[in-house]
Design a protein that fits this description.
404 residues, alpha+beta, FAD/NAD(P)-binding domain, D-Amino Acid Oxidase, Chain A, domain 2, 2 domains, eight-stranded mixed sheet, binds flavin-adenine dinucleotide
Length: 404
């Protein structure tokens, strides 16, 4: 590693090159600053996910300037609609809202491809330096103030210095743990497993969501990654009691749910693809920062508690973190007040519009009787179906939910 990189004092170090880290680094570099992006993995790398890229996330990808390139490079599977199946097997079909009129409601893109295209675009930007296989282990301090990070690389400890540090290091965030801001509250966490299947039958361009009484309060999904391939998974919030064996719930979904079983009857699971990962969901404690250190994406618990959508929240929280850091770098606010500015920005956008309604709706949309009632009504009429879908995806204009 070059001495120049070690001796340099960066404007910002971003830890983690997933969607949150890439977005943060992009918006800091675009403002003319120098960013060092570190990741413990070598890319392309897998990330356990449902791979559903929502319309809102696409809007962010477009603003980062890589949407067209991504579409050309991978020709992803568009998802025009959603199918929701109730515990008593009513089937409700509806288009997915496209409030930004972007011409597509979403895509299913395996994260190995999505994240590496985002990262390739990012490292072509002026002002961005990326180091892979650098595992951050802690923060560096100078007179009680954070001045960089410690990392492990090639069995050596390396110290890298910066004015700001952004922890975008995901659900097991080392940075959040070092700041004592790690979300370990079971009320605001979920766990999910997913596997890839080939030779799946009867797929349409739809996200399929299965509520099954043996899986409640969790739900299962089949998200098509291609005409005959799919990401299949099960997720459950730990809010409603001890998390049950997720792999067992996954087996129930694929072997006992008659509709899922039918689709997978000639299919096979891609070897080694069944993996689990935690989801730190939007919670109410009001700090995602400490002075000049900020947390974005899963590291800052930005996942939608109702749907488990985290990619949009990672991209957007990264942009908000960059806005605050840029204000500090141009002396619009004092360096130590940057964290406070970030906390104001994300609270205004996420706390009451995303986290609170998601948390409240979660307790209704996990009850068998309510799900049977609502989905049966939705199955009978398109207007109710689209109302339910809009509430699920939180696009309803009349509600104080997500504003685009
Ligand atoms: C099973 C499952 C299904 C999901 N389905 C969806 C879905 O369909 N749609 C959706 O929008 N969201 C979904 N989510 C949520 C989504 O995956 C996350 O919210 C999203 O990945 C968050 O992005 P991030 O950049 O914050 O973190 P990550 O994508 O986890 O990236 C963190 C990066 O940090 C790096 N890193 C970690 N520790 C260190 C360290 N110490 N030093 C250096 N680098 C480090 C990692 O290598 C990684 O590259 C799902 C989650 C799960 C678990």
């Amino acid at each position: 590693m070059s001495i120049k990189l070690i001796e340099k004092r960066w404007d910002a170090i971003v830890v983690g090159a997933g969607p949150a880290g890439c977005s943060t680094a992009f918006f800091i570099a675009r403002a003319g600053h120098e960013v060092l992006l570190l990741d413990k993995s070598g890319f392309p790398r897998d990330k356990v996910c449902g791979d559903g890229i929502s319309s809102s996330a696409l809007g962010m990808v477009k603003r980062i300037g890589v949407l067209d390139g991504m579409m050309v490079a991978i020709k992803p599977m568009p998802a025009w609609g959603v199918t929701i199946v109730s515990p008593d097997r009513s089937v409700m079909k509806s288009p997915i809202p496209d409030p930004g009129k972007r011409g597509s409601s979403g895509y299913v893109i395996p994260r190995k491809k999505f994240d590496s295209i985002l990262l390739d675009h990012l490292i072509s930007q002026p002002g961005v330096t990326m180091l892979q296989d650098f595992c951050v282990t802690g923060l560096l301090y100078d007179q009680g103030r954070v001045c960089g990070v410690k990392c492990g690389h090639d069995n050596n400890e390396v110290h890298l210095k910066s004015r700001f540090v952004i922890g975008a290091d995901g659900a097991h965030s080392v940075i959040a743990k070092r700041l004592s801001l790690f979300n370990s509250n079971p009320k605001h966490r979920a766990f999910a497993v997913r596997a890839y299947f080939e030779n799946v039958q009867g797929l349409e361009n739809r996200l399929e969501i299965y509520y099954d009484k043996a899986i409640l309060p969790g739900y299962g999904w089949i998200f098509p990654t291609g005409p005959t391939s799919a990401n299949v998974g099960v997720g459950i919030s730990t809010r409603f009691g001890k998390s049950r064996g997720l792999k067992e719930l996954f087996q129930i979904l694929v072997e006992k749910n008659s509709m899922v079983k039918d689709k997978l009857k000639n299919g096979y699971m891609v070897k080694g693809s069944l993996k689990g990962w935690p989801l730190p969901c939007g919670s109410f404690p009001s700090k995602r920062s400490a002075g000049n250190v900020l947390l974005a994406g899963d590291a800052g618990s930005f996942i939608d508690p109702l749907t488990g959508e985290g990619i949009y929240c990672a991209l957007r929280s990264g942009e908000l973190a960059a806005t605050a850091v840029n204000a500090g770098l141009t002396a619009v606010v004092q360096e130590d007040a940057v964290g406070k500015m970030y906390d104001t920005l994300w609270k205004r956008e996420f706390k009451w519009k995303e986290f609170f309604p998601g948390y409240v709706l979660q307790s209704f949309l996990t009850k068998q009787s309510i799900l049977n009632f609502c989905i049966k009504r939705g199955a009978a009429g398109p207007r109710i179906a689209s109302l339910i879908t809009e509430i699920f995806f939180r696009e309803r204009k009349c509600l104080p939910f997500r504003s685009k």
